[in-house]
# Entry
Amino acid sequence: MVYSEFLPMLKRNLEFCQLLKCVPFVFDSKIDRLVKAKRVGHVVMFRLQCFLSVLYISALFLNLCFGRLTTTEKFQGLTFFMVYFAATWIKFNYSLDMAAIEVIHAFLDFEECIVRETDSPKFPLSFGAKIMKLFIQLAEVSGFSFVILQLILLQCVPCTSPFIFSMFPNCEEMADKTCWLLKLAVHIFETWMCLQMFFGCKVKTATMQSEQDAEKCIKFYRCIQMLEKFFSAYPMSRVVPVMVFGILSMEIISLFVSINFYDKIAMPGFLLFPLLGLNTPLNNICLLTLASLVHNSSGKILAVLEKKVMEMTCHRGRNKSIIYRQLRACSVLKVKFWSNYIDRGTPLVIQNFCINQTMSLTLVEANKMHG
# Structure
C-alpha cells in the first residue's frame, strides 16, 4: 500500500520540491529510498530558506503586534501568520535531521517484510487508506490554490496585512508611487516564501487456528507496536502539535474572518479564508479520526487476540502462561502529542471548541458594532 499508493505521490511532490530546494533530501531510484542531498548548493539553499522563513514570520509577528493595523486587518493578518508559522515549524530542519525520512523508511521496510512473509504482492486499500489518499490529493490542490489566490490578493491589494507593504505607515501612497516591477518582485518573493514553506512541510490480524498462529499474530502486533513507537518519536514534537493546536487556531480565525469581514476584504483574495475554513475542519475530521482509530482498533484487536488465546490454551498450562504473558506485554497503540494522545473523542472535542470560540468572537464583534 505504501509502495503502490503513497510512494508515487511522495515522488511527485519531491520533483517539485527539488526545483524549490525546499527539502534537504532526494529520492535515490537505485536503492528506492530517500537520501540526504549531497550537492552543497542544495543544502545551502535549504538552510537559507529555513533562516529566511524564521526571519519572515518574525517580521509578520512584529507587524501584527506593533504595526498600525485595524482590528479587521489584524484578524486577517493573523490567519496568514498562523499558516506560515505552522508550515515553518514543521519544515524547519537546519541540522538536516533524518528522523522524518527514517519514519518513511520504517514503513517501507515493514511493508516489504509483510509482502515477503505472506507472498502477497498487493493488499487491497482499506477505507481509511482511501480517505487518506483523497485527503492528500485535496491538500495538494488546496496548497496551489492558496499560493495563487495570495498572489492575486497582493496584486489587487498590495497593503494586505501582515505582508511587507503593510509594514509601512504610508502604505497606500507608497504602493501608488512604487514602480510596478518592484511591487511585482516583492510579491513574487512572498509567493516564493509561501511555496517553499508549504511544499517543504508537506513532504514531511488474521484468523488463528493454532498456538503457532497465535504466536505469529502476537509477533506481528509487536512489530506494529515498534513501528508505532518509532513513528511517534518524530511527529510527537513537530507535526501532531501543529495539526492539533495550529490547525485549531487557523479554523477559528478563518471562520471568524469569513463570517464577520466578508464585506471588507477584496475579492478574489477573500476566497483564501473560506478555503482555509473548509480545509481545517476536514483535517480535524479526517486525520484526527483516522489517528483515533489507531487507539480504538488496537484495543479491539488485543481483546480478540486475548479471547482466541484463552480458547485455544485453556487446557495447556505452561504454554498458556507463556502466550498469555506475551499478549499482556502488548499495549494499546497511540498517536501521541507531548504527554497526551488522540482518542475517539478528540476530533469532536476540537471541532466543538472551534465552533464555540468562533461564535463567541462573533458575538463580541457584534456587540462592539451595535454598542
The chain has two domains: 1-204, 206-371. The radius of gyration is 25 Å.
